[in-house]
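Researcher: Sequence recovery benchmark, item below. Answer with residues only.
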């Protein structure tokens, strides 16, 4: 079942941001770290400008909706995260 019984559309960047923000807000942790590994693939692998725009809009929208509770780390294949 979709959140709140509403139909979820993968093509809606607004719902994407709202859904991600909802997950972050319900977390008991004071901050959430979102790691986007190989971010360059949004430009090198993703062939759809619309999907690319929706993905980035979802991330930015979630940042706006969650204030300082969401931190993000973007890496590329030449800059892997060292979190171990």
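Model:
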């Amino acid at each position: 079942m979709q959140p709140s019984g509403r139909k979820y559309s993968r093509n809606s960047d607004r719902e994407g941001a709202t859904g991600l923000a909802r997950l972050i807000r319900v977390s008991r942790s004071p901050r959430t770290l979102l790691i986007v590994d190989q971010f360059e693939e949004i430009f090198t692998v993703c062939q759809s400008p619309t999907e690319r725009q929706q993905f980035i809009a979802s991330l930015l929208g979630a940042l706006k909706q969650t204030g300082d509770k969401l931190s993000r780390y973007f890496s590329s294949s030449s800059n892997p995260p060292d979190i171990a």
